[in-house]
Every structure is written in structure tokens, then in C-alpha cells.
Automatic annotation (TrEMBL):
Protein name: ABC transporter ATP-binding protein
Keywords: ATP-binding, Nucleotide-binding, Transport
Protein's organism: Streptomyces sparsogenes DSM 40356
UniProt key word Translocase: no
InterPro entries registered for this protein in UniProt: AAA+_ATPase, ABC_transporter-like_ATP-bd, ABC_transporter-like_CS, P-loop_NTPase
Every ABC transporter domain range: 15-247
Length: 327
């Protein structure tokens, strides 16, 4: 499936940016010196709240707008210079597909396919049927697009991106506005595509979603990249919340406070809190020492541990901000 050429060693990342920057005419610095590396074969989540620069980055990657500074490579080739050779190998869905509402789903795809000069008209019908099948729209193919739900429109947009075999799919907030069922369908589709070897780069402002479907992630705020890596690494970067079960919660709270645990919540026999950050002059808090201190203070401990660290914990630890999970 890879087509290595002199300019495009297959070993190169699917997406690579160095110092990529966009300042809009109004002066808004939307993307600030972005260094992004998306490994081939990954499902890469590009995570950030609204306004953090995700769409701007994607538009630069796809050659739709010019960067103010820096460079971007797609499948190893420089953008926008190599757009003509690279873009046919990249499927994209950016800010909702542009559909003809008065045409059926099938006829919309026929138009997309006809707009592709490399697409053989003789095999068009088969290509369109296969793409409809792939996104589960075969039964609705004869309905007019204006009668489609938001989820169906989004899937039709994906079908358009899948008319040709793609090495890379770039999806900008593909589940935006979808109900939970629609979101599940898109996630399943993304997994299937990844299983076939397609690299998927998808943006989202929903942490949850990234954790469920992505192997890798990058976190953006205000145009800047905070962190990137595998989802497992990112979650491991934070320790998660301390959780203790004890019949002596009041005494436990006192001991935890003494050891620098913050944001303590005591609910009946369960006490949870945030472990103090290590670093600076403070030595890291050893969980074994903390447990021993509880026991010394006469606190009877039934269970002691940290809750599973999530990407959200990592995000909060990195930025000191929460995420608007409801969107
Ligand atoms: N065409 C534009 N002209 C000026 N500012 C823009 C334009 N598009 C986006 N912005 C600004 O750039 C920032 C990043 O926007 P965007 O890339 O759309 O973020 P996201 O996709 O993460 O929500 C925002 O502050 C937004 O208001
Ligand atoms: Mg956006």
C-alpha cells in the first residue's frame, strides 16, 4: 500500500510538521510553532478545546491555507508543494462535508467521484457502491441528502473520502454533533480502517473519544502543542487520584493533609485526593510511606491505591485546566 519514492521514504511519518505557524490577517496567532509527528499506522487524536487551532492546522496540512512560517510533510512529501501527488492518497473530512441536499446520497458520491480526474468512469458505480457499503449507507443511498440525519451526512462525507484507497485519513471533528449511537458508528469505522492499515488523524475536543479510539494523541491549547505520545504514555504521565477506604475518614483526611494531599473528598468510608506533584525541592511522596503514616495514626485502612489515570488527569496536570467534556 505504501508507494515509496525518492521524495517519500515509507519510513517517514504520515504527518510531520516543524515550526508550523499560522497568524491570520486579523493578527490572531492560531497555530504557534507546531512540531507534530504522526507515526504511520497510528490512530492519532488531535485533541484540544474549541479555538485551540486544530482546524487551522488541518487546513495547512491539506494545503488549503498557507502557513505563516514552518513546514509540513504529508506522507513524507512537502506540502503544499507536493499536493498534486500526495492528496490523492489522503482522504479528508473537514468541518462537515459539502453535500448537494437535493441529490441522493448515491448521486452525491457519483459527483465527488466524477470530480476526481484520476477516477475511471467505467468503475464509478462499483466504487460508489463499495463506499456506501463501507459506511453503512446502502439502504439509504436513494434518499435525498437533505433527508439525512447529521450522522448520515457525516458518514456520506466519509464515504466520499473513501472512494479511493487511502494511506491517510484526516478527519476534523468527525463526531461533532452526533448522538452517542452515531459516535459509536464513526468510532467503529475508524477502527476498521485502522485495522486495514490506514493511518487516521482525527481531531476532537472530546477526551473520552480520543481515549476510546486512538493509539496516539497530541494535546493543543491556544495554538500550542502541550504534549504528544501514545495514549498509554500520556495517561501514565499523571498518577491518578489517591483513593482510600477506611472506617476512620476524619482521621485519614487529617493525615493526608499533613502529607500534602489536596482536593480531599471524604464520602462515608471513601476518601480521595490529589497526590502532591513531585518536583521542585519537595521529594516525591512515596505511597508506601503514606500508607504507613495512616496506620501509625491509628487509621484502619481497608483499601489503598490510585485510581486509573486517564488522559483527562494528564491534561489537567499539564494545563491546570479542565476540559469541557460536554462540548
Ligand atoms: N479565517 C480566520 N480568520 C481569523 N481567525 C481565525 C480564522 N479561523 C480561525 N481563526 C481563529 O484561530 C483560532 C483557532 O481556530 P481553529 O483552528 O478553528 O480552532 P479549533 O479547530 O481547534 O476549534 C481561533 O481563535 C479562531 O477564532
Ligand atoms: Mg475546528
Amino acid at each position: 500500500m505504501d508507494q515509496p519514492s525518492a521524495e517519500d521514504p515509507a519510513a517517514r511519518a504520515a504527518v510531520e510538521t516543524r515550526g508550523l505557524t499560522k497568524r491570520y490577517r486579523g493578527g490572531q496567532l492560531a497555530v504557534d510553532s507546531l512540531d507534530l509527528t504522526v507515526p504511520r499506522g497510528s490512530v492519532f487524536g488531535f485533541l484540544g478545546p474549541n479555538g485551540s487551532g486544530k482546524t487551522t492546522t488541518i487546513r495547512m496540512l491539506m494545503g488549503l491555507i498557507e502557513p505563516t512560517a514552518g513546514r509540513a510533510r504529508l506522507l513524507g512529501a512537502p506540502m503544499p508543494r507536493a499536493a498534486r501527488s500526495v492528496l490523492p492518497r489522503v482522504g479528508a473530512l473537514i468541518e462537515g462535508p459539502a453535500l448537494y441536499p437535493f441529490l441522493t446520497g448515491r448521486d452525491n458520491l457519483v459527483r465527488f467521484d466524477a470530480a476526481d480526474p484520476t477516477a475511471d468512469p467505467g468503475t464509478r458505480a462499483a466504487r460508489v457502491s463499495a463506499a456506501l457499503e463501507r459506511v453503512g449507507l446502502t439502504a439509504a443511498a436513494r434518499k435525498k441528502a437533505r433527508a439525512y440525519s447529521l450522522g448520515m451526512k457525516q458518514r456520506l462525507g466519509l464515504a466520499a473520502a473513501l472512494l479511493q484507497p487511502r494511506e491517510l485519513l484526516v478527519l476534523d471533528e468527525p463526531t461533532n454533533g452526533l448522538d452517542p449511537q452515531g459516535m459509536r458508528e464513526i468510532r467503529t469505522l475508524v477502527r476498521e480502517l485502522a485495522d486495514d492499515g490506514t493511518t487516521v488523524f482525527l481531531s476532537s475536543h472530546l477526551l473520552d473519544e480520543i481515549e476510546q479510539v486512538c493509539t496516539h494523541a497530541a494535546v493543543m491549547t491556544q495554538g500550542r502543542l502541550i504534549v504528544q505520545g501514545t495514549v498509554a504514555e500520556l495517561a501514565a504521565g499523571s498518577r491518578g487520584r489517591l483513593s482510600i477506604t477506611t472506617p476512620d475518614p476524619a482521621e485519614a483526611v487529617r493525615v493526608l493533609k499533613e502529607h500534602g494531599v489536596t482536593d480531599i473528598v471524604a464520602l462515608e468510608e471513601r476518601v480521595t485526593g490529589e497526590l502532591p506533584a513531585s518536583g521542585g525541592s519537595a521529594p516525591p511522596l512515596d505511597l508506601a510511606d503514606l500508607n504507613a503514616a495512616l496506620v501509625r495514626a491509628g487509621v484502619r485502612v481497608r483499601a489503598f491505591g490510585t485510581e486509573r489515570a486517564s488522559l483527562e488527569d494528564a491534561f489537567v496536570a499539564l494545563t491546570g485546566e479542565g476540559f469541557d467534556v460536554a462540548g
